[in-house]
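Form 7-S
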Amino acid sequence: MKKNVLGLFLTVALTGVAQAETVFVTLEKDNALAVVDPISGKLIKTVDIGQRPRGITISPDNKFLYVATSDENTIKIIDAETLKEAGKLPSGEDPETFALNPAGDRLYVSNEDDSQVTVIDIKHKKAVKQIKVGVEPEGITVSPDNLWVASASETTNMVHWIDTKTNAIVENTLVDPRPRALGFTADSQQLWVTSEMAGTLMILDVKTKQIVKTIKFDVQGVTADKIQPVGVAIDKDRKRGYVALGPANRVAVINAQTFEVEKYLLVGQRVWNLAFSPDQKRLYTTNGTSNDISLIDLETQTVTKSIGVGTYPWGVAVKP
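Output:
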């Protein structure tokens, strides 16, 4: 009996360790990467990363981080364990946001100044295509089924639908002013697009490429000019979606079935981007002007922690 109890204890303990994760945050004004243990709520270390780091993502095998160092005109490959630079990718000028395909072998980079998307072959560290899009492209994402790249042009106010097989634009969808971020649902059936200027979220049907719902955000006690939707994340079960509302200092919680706003969660100042924990029990937000990240418990839908990370946190990625 004692052995069984001990075995159970060890199983629980090991399971707890396995569920821990590391959060990586780009610090735009510190030219650094913050490494955070979200469970203990502590900043582990800060590592110099390059000039003006913003966009960040992690490879499907969790071995490498990709970080856009905008003022160096490159995307750096960082070993996720050692945090040493393992290579560079030819991103084009002033990379800020980019998207990794599900296989982890193609990277799609928004080149805002050149009104184009650069397609990179990661294995060969080579740009294989440059696709002309609208003016000031920023938000970009790849569908989970790897059929589509969606690129949003802030000044043209369009979503461009790029066929991943041909690297050609096959359709354009007019959206609300200054579309900022995009995210596909896990089933690749919907694309969620935020409009920073209109204060809205648009739900697009992937089959028709048309808007099926527009949600206007309204936060009590916050003036409309401060409600500027940016980052967006939808859970894998399409139960809820989450939108960072910029200087409104809130994250909107949206029922992904009815498209009703369920609540607004108060986070840090100038919330930019969002990332789920691997088990999707937590959501992390980068808060640019309060220099911290917020941890949201998704089971209780409450903000449970604020962790100082450094100056002007922007991008966020999570490693199991």
